[in-house]
Amino acid sequence: MKAQKLISNSIFALTLLLVSVVFGQKTVMVGGAAMYPSKNIIENAVNSKDHTTLVAAVKAAGLVETLQGKGPFTVFAPTNAAFDKLPKGTVETLLKPENIKTLQTILTYHVVAGKMNSGDIAKAIKAGKGKATLKTVSGGTLTAWMKGKDLYITDENGKSAKVTIADVNQSNGVIHVIDNVVTPK
């Protein structure tokens, strides 16, 4: 029985590897869960233990359907630890129905229209002589820059977030995991 399960799991893993090689995109682990390039942003994010706060916020903001849409989107996804860095009570306040517009603005500030993998962003940074301005879906801007091989984004208030996991490909875009919540002016 154990040998049969091991063989079955091995075949499944081999199939996933083959699919990712054939399609040129690899499955990345985020928050203890595999992020499959064949699934959309929401289908993957709900499985990440590191993004439960982000998923709750997306649901409260009514953005699930949007992020399940065709896209493509580039999402800078803050972890639970990033949300924990906010002043006490901030997340709870933002999740209240009367604050939906503010929550939507903050969440869509983490989204850029189009699919920009880390290589695309690095090229834009090089072309911009060290910085690239990214227009967010909320209408604001993020500034991308690099420190060594690390990719960072800075918000309109001067707060920076490091990309801790880049190029998590989705069927409707790409996610870059970040270590801080960025906010518009």
Relevant terms:
single chain; two-stranded antiparallel ribbon; FAS1 domain; globular; 9 strands; 185 residues; alpha+beta; seven-stranded mixed beta sheet
Structure notes:
This protein is α+β, with helices and mostly antiparallel strands and 185 residues long. It has a single domain, classed as FAS1 domain. Helices cover 38% and strands 26% of the residues. It contains eight helices and nine strands. The protein has helices spanning 2-23, 41-45, 52-60, 64-68, 80-84, 90-94, 100-108, 118-127, and strands spanning 28-30, 33-35, 73-78, 111-113, 132-135, 141-147, 150-154, 160-170, 173-178. A seven-stranded mixed beta sheet has the order 4-3-9-8-7-6-5. The longest helix is centred in the N-terminal third of the chain and has 22 residues, at 2-23. The protein is globular. The termini are far apart. Mean pLDDT is 88; it is low at 12-24.
Name given to the CATH homologous superfamily: FAS1 domain
Radius of gyration, rounded?
Answer: 17 Å
Largest sheet: 7 strands, mixed
The overall number of domains is 1
CATH architecture call: Roll
SSE blueprint:
Layout: H1 2-23, E1 28-30, E2 33-35, H2 41-45, H3 52-60, H4 64-68, E3 73-78, H5 80-84, H6 90-94, H7 100-108, E4 111-113, H8 118-127, E5 132-135, E6 141-147, E7 150-154, E8 160-170, E9 173-178
Parallel strand pairs: 3-9
Antiparallel strand pairs: 1-2, 3-4, 5-6, 6-7, 7-8, 8-9
